[in-house]
Amino acid sequence: MDIYHIWCDLKSGESDIAFADAVGTYLDGLVSDGRLERWRLTRRKLGLGNGAGEFHIMLEFTGLAQLDEAFTRVASRTDPVESFHHAVNSKVANVSFSLYRDFPDPVRERGSEKF
Length: 115
Prior knowledge:
Helix content is 33%, strand content 28%. It is an alpha+beta fold.
């Protein structure tokens, strides 16, 4: 799996529940279209964190091809996905992104490690 991480804060005055609902609507649509395997929304607890945003969204893709399909769909800027994306994007500030993969992944050959 390739896991796309998003950290963000909410803009002042934005509802945390409205944000969570908007994230669910947006990402559930990508799952139902087969452009995303699964997703998860978490929130920092007890003020503990590494300086990243208060909210953390994890998007799991089977590989970069599926990730590209999702990005292509969102980049089309057509409804309904554009409205769903805007409903999330308009509520956030201080956004940062990372892309990670499961390790070791299936393409990793064993026995060729160098010391």
